[in-house]
Design a protein that fits this description.
By secondary structure, the chain is α/β, with parallel strands linked by helices. The chain folds into two domains: about 250 residues, Aspartate Aminotransferase, domain 2; about 120 residues, Aspartate Aminotransferase, domain 1 (Alpha-Beta Complex). The chain contains 13 helices and 15 strands. Helix 1 runs antiparallel to helix 8, helix 2 runs parallel beside helix 8 and helix 3 crosses helix 7. Bound molecules: pyridoxal-5'-phosphate (PLP). The site of pyridoxal-5'-phosphate (PLP) has 14 residues, from helix 3 and helix 4.
């Protein structure tokens, strides 16, 4: 039986042709396709700078490094995210804490954030160096109030926009960095556009851009302007910082630049599928995804919430039955603070009750641009059968 996955890539002949042309060119690792891809993403977002990297996790890591994260610094993010949103601080030796989610959007709650900042300021406990709002499922967080709080307390904002390229907030594209210092994307195959593995950091801040370039490639510079002392000649480079090799290849960037041409079409298809799910699932004991009026969702995920008080089955039974029927549903996310690694750092069940309650009831349905109408109907019919 062919399983309908929850997410997958859409690769056309023009993507393949562009990758093959790069394979025949002089450049395999960082070359001209990287710059074209970076310019395309920067133009889409309307930002000055973009730095392509090996994956979305590397993007978060160099973004945290560029912000100067050190041991004793603190990062706050949402517990309803992939572990990488929090891990980027841990890579820098810094600490992590979480802000519980809004029960309607499942994004970091602005009210909880305001309370937690006020409590920290009042008790004189450490404030975070940066907040990482995660645009869960492709729906932007409420960036303007988040930016206002960050400004008031002198905190940086790093958007984890892994789900949300192609989405918008108050008419501006996600990643515009108008309400943040930096934003990161992931181009994993289940995300909106793909480079197989891949990621990007965007920013309007030239100081951060220069540090991102260093951290992407070993902390090495070939630009005399950033060197200490004199250059020894045309071969000369200096290692100014401790960086990593997080470069994306030109092959992947060739795929990415071609995928970016189809971003609007991909998001439009995802939005049409979301509207259809909204219609077809309306009468079931489910909570369907609520849309904040300030946002246009990129629809990385379509998450339903089970009204378990009105159902005879457990969430686990429902997931197992859907999977045995060939519907590859998934769960996003296990609250990060309940992972064994984070428990060892002192987090406990009950620390972020909205995220935990949401986790117990949620299921992500198949959602990707290549999903066919007939496949979506099969998903809906199977859900109706299983919930009956
Ligand atoms: C996918 C994802 C990442 C990590 O991206 P990779 O490209 O897989 O490293 C980070 N944060 C969120 C919210 C993600 O969904």
């Amino acid at each position: 039986m062919r399983v309908i996955p929850y997410g997958r890539q859409l690769i056309d002949e023009d993507d393949i042709a562009n990758v093959v042309a790069t394979l025949r060119s002089d450049w395999l690792t960082q070359g001209p396709a990287i710059e074209r891809f970076e310019r395309k993403v920067a133009a889409h977002c309307g930002v000055k700078h973009a730095v392509a990297v090996a994956n979305g996790t590397a993007a978060l890591h160099i973004a945290a490094a560029a912000l100067g994260f050190q041991p004793d610094d603190l990062l706050w993010t949402s517990p309803n995210t992939f572990v990488a949103s929090a891990n980027c601080a841990r890579y820098c030796g810094a600490d992590v804490d979480f802000v519980d989610i809004d029960p309607r959007t499942y994004n970091l709650s602005v009210a909880r954030l305001a309370e937690k900042l006020a409590a920290a300021a009042q008790t004189g406990t450490r404030l975070p160096k940066a907040i990482v709002p995660v645009h869960f499922s492709g729906q932007s967080c409420e960036m303007e109030p988040i930016a206002a709080l960050a400004k008031r307390y002198g905190i940086a904002v790093l958007e984890d926009a892994s789900h949300a390229i192609g989405g918008s907030y108050r008419g501006r594209p996600v990643g515009c960095c108008e309400f943040s210092d930096l934003a990161t994307f992931s181009f994993h195959p289940v995300k909106i556009v793909t480079t197989a593995e891949g990621g990007m950091v965007v920013t309007n801040r030239t100081d951060l851009y220069e540090r991102l370039l260093l951290f992407r490639s070993h902390g090495i510079t070939r630009d005399a302007k950033f060197m200490e002392g004199e250059s020894h000649g045309p071969w000369y480079y200096q290692q100014a910082e401790l960086g990593w090799n997080y470069r994306l290849t030109d092959l992947q960037a060739a795929l990415g630049e071609c995928q970016m041409n189809k971003l609007d079409a991909f998001v439009a298809r995802r939005a049409a599928l979301a509207r259809r799910y909204d219609e077809l699932l309306a009468d079931l004991p489910l909570t369907l995804p609520w849309q904040h009026p300030d946002t246009a969702n990129a629809w990385h995920l379509y998450v339903i919430r089970l009204r378990l008080d009105r159902l005879q089955k457990t969430r686990r039974q429902i997931v197992e039955e859907l999977r045995s029927a060939g519907i590859g549903v998934q769960i996003h996310y296990i609250p990060v603070h309940t992972q064994p690694y984070y428990r060892r750092l002192g987090f406990r069940d009950g620390d972020f009750p909205e995220a935990e309650k949401y986790y117990a009831e949620t299921i992500s349905l198949p959602m990707f641009a290549a999903l066919k109408d007939a496949e979506q109907e099969k998903v809906v019919d199977t859900i109706k059968g299983v919930l009956k």
